[in-house]
Design brief:
The protein has about 400 residues and is an alpha/beta fold. It contains 14 helices and 21 strands. The strands form six sheets. Strands 12-11-8-13-16-17-19-20 form an eight-stranded mixed β-sheet, with helices on both faces. A hairpin with a 5-residue loop joins β6 and β7. It is globular and about 75 Å long. It binds cytidine-5'-triphosphate. The site of cytidine-5'-triphosphate (CTP) has 15 residues, from α12 and β16. Keywords: Decarboxylase, Flavoprotein, FMN, Ligase, Lyase, Magnesium, Metal-binding, Multifunctional enzyme.
């Protein structure tokens, strides 16, 4: 799938630079050619010799290298690729990109290029969470830069949290998705998926039976049609899709924040089973058992993410798709829900326990739009996902 594709790989100066070597190997195994560029800081972490040996190509490091300029000028270098990949993208490189700096070879290439750009950020968790980095990230996304990772986990600096660079194979999957020439190429689509968990106290929570299987399948199908997919998921049991940007959340309010941060998108598919209510005043201490006394919980309403996005005065996605899980009068309820929430389509399904749909591998849906209700035969969740992705592609044409 990557045969003949040309990747301009900019390796930034971070400890994750060593994964850049593996990335080169994985890309070449799949038939891609890799032209490597090292920032000056990157040469402190990996040597140009090992990068060059793995890439089988010359390594570019210096903006003012006369030999390099004579062989291939930096403007030309920025244009030879199908995709420019920055891995690891350090906080500094992201800041340079967001600010439009061009004071070394890497930043100049990024300014001069007319090919799509993907970054795989990697940095200390506090640097990642810093408002400056988050601001730069938002700017880069707005500029159309694709982002893969970072992942959450133990970091080389001894801290824990988001900031670890995505694994080479995850980056390869994202590159494949970015280079796919499908009908959704150049479209950005948001998918919400899974349940939400609403805390009662620090150890207990309210959940629902959504597995996230349908959401994952939809994200994969959209990716396969070439879309850039932002997948915002609650604590689902289904595997996360490869080659998409995964944002993990727990509560409805966190999901709302993640959704708003991912805008603008061309389409939003809201497949998550979001809890309608959360426990009022869920506190920091555990509710203790008191003999003969039952605790009482009071609830407050969660934000309705689908309704909020559907009714945005500015920046509403061109197409907003909601889901309805109903147990009776499916079409009537779902039709009313479409109007009430203000979305374009509702994918309605019957979740009575005897249907085996919730948590199962099949689905029987009715697609409700302004044109009426369309019954789809019972089929696998992957088939539902493929069909829905194709309909979305047709609607965004
Ligand atoms: N949804 C959402 N935010 C919420 C609740 C629901 O974005 N707080 C979205 C779901 O992702 C789904 C759609 O709204 O796409 C329908 O959710 P559902 O729970 O079926 O509908 P409700 O509005 O809760 O209506 P009811 O409880 O009457 O079925």
């Amino acid at each position: 799938m990557l045969a003949g594709k040309r990747i301009l790989l900019i390796i930034g100066g971070g400890i994750a630079a060593y994964k850049g070597l593996d990335l080169i190997r994985r890309l070449r195994e799949r038939g891609a050619s890799v032209t490597p560029v090292l920032t000056r800081a990157a040469t402190e972490f990996v040597t140009p010799l090992s990068v060059s040996a793995l890439a089988g190509e010359k390594v570019y490091t210096d903006l003012f290298d006369l030999t390099d300029e004579a062989e291939m000028g930096h403007i030309q270098l920025s244009r030879v690729a199908d995709l420019v990949v920055v891995a690891p993208a350090t906080a500094d490189l992201m800041a340079k990109m967001a600010g439009g700096h061009a004071n070394d070879l890497a930043s100049t290439l990024l300014m001069a290029t007319d090919t799509p750009v993907m970054i795989a950020p990697a940095m200390n968790v506090r640097m990642w969470d810093h408002p400056a980095t988050q601001r730069n990230l938002a700017t880069l996304k707005f500029d159309g830069v694709r982002v893969v990772g970072p992942n959450e986990g133990d970091m080389a600096c001894g801290e824990y949290g988001p900031g670890r660079m995505a694994e080479p194979l995850e980056i390869v999957a994202a590159i494949k998705a970015a280079l796919t020439d499908g009908p959704l190429k150049d479209k950005r689509v948001l998918v919400t998926s899974g349940p939400t968990h609403e805390p009662i106290d620090p150890v207990r929570y309210i959940a629902n039976r959504s597995s996230g299987a349908q959401g994952t399948a939809i994200a994969e199908s959209l990716r396969d049609l070439g879309a850039e997919v932002i997948f915002v998921t609650g604590p689902a049991t289904a595997a996360r899709p490869d080659g998409v940007t995964v944002v993990e959340v727990e509560t409805a309010r966190e999901m709302r924040e993640a959704v708003m941060a991912s805008l603008p998108v061309d389409a939003g598919v809201f497949a998550a089973a979001v809890a309608d209510w959360r426990v009022d005043g869920a506190g920091a201490s555990k509710i203790k058992k008191v003999a003969g006394k039952l605790p009482s919980l009071s609830f407050v309403e969660n934000p309705d993410i689908l309704a909020e996005v559907s009714q945005l005065a500015e920046g509403r996605p061109q197409l907003v798709v909601g889901f309805a899980a109903e147990t009776d009068d499916v079409v009537t309820h779902a039709t009313a829900k479409r109007v009430r929430k203000g979305c374009d389509w509702i994918v309605a399904n019957d979740v009575r326990p005897e249907t085996g749909i919730m948590g199962g591998s099949e689905n029987a849906v009715v697609l409700i739009s302004a044109d009426g209700a369309e019954d789809w035969p019972r089929m696998g969740k992957r088939d539902v996902a493929r069909r829905l992705a194709e309909r979305i592609a047709a609607a965004l044409l």
